[in-house]
Design brief:
Blueprint lengths: L4 E3 L4 H7 L7 E4 L5 H6 L7 E4 L10 E3 L5 E4 L4 H5 L2 H6 L2 H6 L5 H6 L2 H6 L7 H7 L3 E6 L2 E6 H4 E3 L2 E2 L6 E7 L6 E8 L7 E12 L2 E10 L6 E2 L1 H7 L6 H14 L10 H20 L7
Parallel strand pairs: 1-3, 2-3
Antiparallel strand pairs: 4-5, 5-10, 6-7, 6-10, 8-9, 11-12, 12-13, 13-14
């Protein structure tokens, strides 16, 4: 790696001021688990990194409102989210997902904000929180704004963040009686990057779905919701025929990408099967599967 300057601001405002919107070689660094790999590979050569480590106290931690809404600071390590009693109580699909999200060493360092801001379609957390209807609070030189995770992720390693904006927190609305599941399909070890991720959140009475959110990732250029599949499921009493129809529709509609984890044809067939499995798992309140 080439030499670079490391800045360590003490406030969010100071950190934003140190990021040059016109200089792509000046970037923030949170946990650094993804950025350091890019630097070692020579993909990214920074002139200055703005470390957010000293901001831990102001933008970290997990809190829950009386209604069950969760607020998670952007600098909260993934392992802290995994072991949070509040998260386990109000969004249990998240700690279930975390157990197979990379390894414990990475989860101890990687942060919630970094996992979302990186825009990598293979990450496990974004599709799950998108299915839960989550939104992020974004801070920049002109103040703060709030966007849904769905609006945040715009393309392959692309987000709607301006170059000098930072994610400050993630908010997950109260889930009420909703049930959720995440299926991760890997071509390697259980905690490897997925070839396909499917996250589903349902409001249901018995086997009848009142509303649904279906998100696909890893096989697609970004974590992507499928409103057409959600419409197909809503109001339906779930049986094998309906689940097959949902899987077929998703496979026919999705923009699938090939990579080292599988061809587009392979991933399309996985999607055809796993949409139905994820819906069934959510109905049964089962956890993250392989």
């Amino acid at each position: 790696m080439i030499p670079f300057e490391l800045a360590e601001p003490g406030s969010l405002k100071e950190a934003i001021g140190l990021i040059d919107a016109d200089d792509p070689t000046v970037r923030p660094i949170a946990g650094g688990t993804a950025l350091m790999l890019m630097m070692k590979a020579g993909v990214f050569q920074p002139r200055r990194l703005v470390s957010l480590r000293r901001l831990n106290g102001s933008i970290s931690g997990v809190s829950a409102s009386p209604s069950g809404e969760l607020t998670i600071g952007a600098m909260t390590p993934l392992s802290a989210v995994e072991h949070s009693p509040d998260v386990a109580r109000h969004a249990p699909v998240i700690p279930r997902t975390m157990k197979r999200l990379s390894n414990v060493r990475v989860r101890n360092v990687a942060t919630v904000g970094g996992a979302l801001a990186h825009g990598d379609p293979h990450m496990d957390l974004p599709p799950v929180v998108m299915a839960l209807g989550a939104r992020v609070r974004v801070a920049g030189p002109n103040g703060e704004r709030e966007v849904s995770v769905e609006e945040l992720l715009t393309g392959y390693y692309e987000t709607s963040l301006a170059p000098n904006e930072l994610i400050a927190s993630l908010t997950i609305p109260a889930q009420g009686r909703s049930r959720a599941a995440y299926f991760k399909v890997t071509a390697g070890s259980a905690d490897d990057w997925p070839a396909l991720g499917v996250a589903v959140s349902l409001d249901a009475e018995g086997d009848t779905i009142k509303s649904a959110r279906v998100v696909v990732s890893a096989a697609t250029p970004k974590a992507t919701r499928f409103p057409s599949i959600e419409k197909l499921l809503t109001g339906a009493t779930i049986d094998d025929k309906r689940l097959k129809a949902a899987g077929d529709a998703a496979a026919d509609e999705a923009e699938i990408i090939s990579d080292v984890r599988g061809s587009a044809a392979y991933k399309r067939e996985l999607l055809r099967v796993y949409v139905g499995r994820a819906v069934r798992a959510a109905l049964n309140e089962s956890g993250s599967k392989s």
